[in-house]
Design goal:
The protein is an alpha/beta fold and about 325 residues long. The protein has ten helices and 13 strands. The strands form four sheets. Strands 2-1-3-4-5-10 form a six-stranded parallel beta sheet, with helices on both faces. The chain is globular, with a radius of gyration of 19 Å. The relative contact order is 0.15. The chain binds guanosine-5'-diphosphate (GDP). The site of guanosine-5'-diphosphate (GDP) has 18 residues, from helix 6 and strand 7.
Amino acid sequence: MSEVIFPLAGKRVFVAGHSGMAGGAILRRLARENCEILTADRSDLDMCRQREVEEWLATAKPDAIFLAAAKVGGIHANTTRRAEFLYDNLAIETNVIHGAWRTGVKKLLFLGSSCIYPRETPQPMKEEALLTGLLEPTNEAYAIAKIAGIKLCDAYRRQYGCDFISAMPTNLYGPGDRYDLLGGHVVAAVIMKLHAAKSAGDPTVTIWGTGTPRREFLFTEDLADGLVFLMKHYTGPGHLNLGTGVDVTIHELAEAVAKVAGWSGEFVHDRSKPDGMMRKVMDVSRMTALGWRAKTRFEDGLRSAYEWYVAHVAERQAGHG
Ligand code: GDP
C-alpha cells in the first residue's frame, strides 16, 4: 500500500455535507482516525452563500475538508430540476473551494460522480475519458457542475499550489440513503417498493425503464474508507474513480433486493420512465494500484441498507401512521 503523506491524527477535519448519505459514512469512518471532526448544520451555514462559507471557514479553521455537500438525486430529479442541480452544486463547490484557498486549508477532497463521463464512452470508464464526448442528457446539469468542481481543484492546485484532490464515486447505496420514490436513486427506490409490496402482500412491483441498464453500486462504508484512504495517501491533479469495477443489470439488482426482503413476485416495467445510460461501470485500476479496493459483498451491503431502511424509515412511519 502507498505511504501516508497526510496523516489525519490531531487535525481539524471538516465534513461538508455530513447529514447526507456520503457525509454520514465519512463521519463514521473518521471516528477511527483520532482527528477532530467539524460539521455545520444547514440552519447555521448555507453553502450556497459565499460570505457565510468564508466566515465559517475563517472561524472554524479546518486543516482538511471532505467536500461531500451537494444537491443529489436520481434520474427523475436530475432531469426535472436542472436549474437546482446546476446552480446549487456550482455554488457549493466554488464557495467551499475558494474559501478553502482563502483560509489556508491544507487539503481538500472533492466528491463528484461517475456521471461526469461521456454517454458513449468505452466501458469500464477510465479517468482519461473525461471531456472526450457529449454527456448523458438525463444527468447533464449535475455532470457539468461536477466537472467544474474537478477543474476548480486543478486550477487552485496549479495557480496557488493548493493540495485539492477529486474522487468520482460510482452509484452509491447504504444507510442514510434518500428514501424518496421520485427524487431518490434506484437502490433506495427498489428497497422502498419491495418492502411495501412485502408488507401489503402485493404480487407485483413496478420498476422504471426496461430493467436492462447496467450499473455499478458502491456501499457507503466502502466509499468512506476509500475517501479517507485518498485523503491520507494521495495527492495529484485530475480525479480518481472510486467504485467496485463490477456492474449488474437493474433487473439483477431488483432480484437481489427481493431476496434480502424475502419477497417473491413479478417485476413490471414502466417504460414511460427513462433508462438513462445503458451501462455505467468504473475502471478502478488506479485505486487498485494505490492499494485500495472495495470490500463489502453486494448481498451484505444490500441487507444492511434494507435493515437500515426498515428500522429508521419504514417502522417510524408506521409508528406515526
Ligand atoms: P442514474 O444512474 O443516474 O441513471 O440514476 P438512478 O439510480 O436514478 O437510475 C438508475 C437506473 O435504474 C435507471 O435506468 C432507472 O430507470 C432505473 N430504475 C428502475 N426503477 C427505478 C426507480 O424506482 N427509481 C429510480 N431512480 N431508478 C429506477
